[in-house]
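Researcher: I'd like a candidate sequence for this fold, 234 residues long. If you have to choose between options at a position, lean toward the conservative one.
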């Protein structure tokens, strides 16, 4: 508890104001200005993740908060703008990104504020090879000017080496889900469509906005890419 007290005290001294920061009070009377960004567990084991003013995070047992604040944590749900989202558990610590001639571990410094665009693709897929340069051009053109979206590649390759070679060859500079995490991601989210290339556009809570499939009809990834282009231009 001594370490946690030091961290909470430090949080009071840091940074600039944020609209979601508020005063949280422990059972022992100590307080801190923090932003609630996530929670995990349940019952007596429920823990809250708070953002400090310097951008750091700290986990804190909800049972150590006064009852009014503990109840706020129990009722809290993630929003669609900033903070945590339904994909955090599967993406945090599980991303790689092209660095030179290899895919290296990657953490998003800034998560998207509105949309995820999941790209289901593989090196062995001819139509994917044809479409990917268009998506690369879209990303390289629009991503530097927009924090509203991020592309995450979900591979259908059979091994990490093929996935990496594909990324290098097509200069795909967006994050990729680690090969070892693909199966669990697909099992969890069950995005529509079995064929590739497949783009799936969602909000931060996982709500489908547009996919390469309209029912059982395959309309292709360009339709989804263009829809996102219109959204971020608004």
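Model: Candidate sequence:
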């Amino acid at each position: 508890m001594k370490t946690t007290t030091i961290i909470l005290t430090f949080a009071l001294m840091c940074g600039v104001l944020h609209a979601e920061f508020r005063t949280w009070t422990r059972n022992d009377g100590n307080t801190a200005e923090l932003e609630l960004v996530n929670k995990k567990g349940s019952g007596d084991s429920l823990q809250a993740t708070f953002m400090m003013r310097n951008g750091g995070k700290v986990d804190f047992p909800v049972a150590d908060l006064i009852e009014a604040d503990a109840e706020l944590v129990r009722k809290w749900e993630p929003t669609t703008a900033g903070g945590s989202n339904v994909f955090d558990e599967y993406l945090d610590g599980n991303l790689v990104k092209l660095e030179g001639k290899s895919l290296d571990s990657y953490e998003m410094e800034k998560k998207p504020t509105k949309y995820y665009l999941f790209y289901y693709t593989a090196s062995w897929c001819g139509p994917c090879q044809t479409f990917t340069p268009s998506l690369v051009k879209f990303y390289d053109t629009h991503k530097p000017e927009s924090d509203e979206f991020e592309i995450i590649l979900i591979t259908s390759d059979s091994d990490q080496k093929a996935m990496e070679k594909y990324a290098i060859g097509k200069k795909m500079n967006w994050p990729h889900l680690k090969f070892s995490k693909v199966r669990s991601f697909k099992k969890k989210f069950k995005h529509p469509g079995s064929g590739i290339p497949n783009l799936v556009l969602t909000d931060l809570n996982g709500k489908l906005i547009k996919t390469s499939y309209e029912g059982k009809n395959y309309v292709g990834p360009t339709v989804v890419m263009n829809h996102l282009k219109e959204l971020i231009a608004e």
